[in-house]
Amino acid sequence: MKMNKKVLGLLGTGHAITDINQGAIAMFLAFLQPVFALSQTQVGLAMLAFNLSSSIIQPIFGVISDRVRAIWLIPLGCLLAGLGMALTGLSFNYGTLLGAALLSGLGVAAYHPEGSKFARFASGSLKGTGMSLFSVGGNIGFAAGPVLASLFYGLAGLHGSVGFLVLNGIMALFLWAGIPTIAAVGDYGAGSSARRSSSGGVRLDARAMIPVVLLVMVVIMRSWVHMGLVTFLPQYYVHYLHQGGAYAAAITSIFLLAGVFGTLAGGPAADRWGLKTVIIGSMAMTIPLLLLFSRLSGVWVTVAVFLAGFAVISTFSVTVVLGQEMLPNNVGLASGLMLGFGIGMGGVGTTLLGWVADRWGLPMVFEVMIIFPVLGLIIAFFLPGSSALARRQSAV
Q1: Where are the alpha helices (DSSP H) in the chain?
Q2: What is the model's pTM?
Q3: Is pLDDT at 24 greater than 90 in this prediction?
Q4: Which domain holds residue 30?
Q5: The domain spanning residue 375 has which CATH number?
């Protein structure tokens, strides 16, 4: 089956619009903080509510996706993500704010497993390339979230959050109208094993799950580096180097922008050289970049940050595809584990790094962070290669 770029474009755009809410939630909490006189702890709890429902719960939606035909979760997830964000600005107390954050996160969680499953079907034989096109939509949406939040707030204050419902509602209508086309790709491109995936999956034995657990550990290590850099780059430049906020924001944006290019490059590279090879290369490349980061100055810092963003985020789609290859009849569960649980654990890493910063200072954060890709590299060597995956596919 050839790659269906129309379906990938539709799903990737839906991914972008859905993930805009992930980028916007923190900005709207900043706008709401003085209105409700929220403490930093209450702000953190609101973010925790969003992250729990958007990330940790994704494997549950993945299981649902594997047991029943749940293509309707694609437009519904997009709609709920925008509805929850709209309700944040309309909240009348902290309790309703928490409920709105939970609802928005629930929509994000519902979209990803089913969306990534059909993105796999639409990718044909070039699964890495197709998944990178789907994944980059999420990267772009996440980066655009704060900008749109500021724009909507500038236009209508807190009630500007309704703009997200309008945006996501329109996208949900396009997705709903496209369900027959998306479903046809699944029926035609899934093959016998993938059709079993969408109608019930298979029982999982402990031995088969060992490489999946290893992959989740690799994703967690990557997530700790990713979220650690996003969180502590601004802190390092503003509070340690005493640079302006604009410079710190620019450095962080360079890191995220490089991730877009990395995602686009990682998928095709995996199709050519193998999924495991790209993951190992990404971890190996990240280690010296983190070592050099705090020892560089001038334009070389920008170069190092860009290359780090490219390397770290380049495996975003690759790990999803590898998880799906390991669980070919449970691709929804695999997607939920890679996109949700693994990435959602990034909050644990930032908490640990925050403790390091409080105890030993911000520069030590980047020294300690080197441990994560080292561990990820070691674990990655134990992942199945192309030949092992082929044997597993033939045994299904």
Answers
A1: 5-36, 40-51, 58-67, 73-90, 94-122, 127-156, 162-177, 179-189, 191-199, 206-235, 245-273, 275-293, 299-313, 316-326, 331-336, 342-344, 346-360, 362-369, 371-380, 386-395
A2: 0.79
A3: no
A4: 5-199
A5: 1.20.1250.20
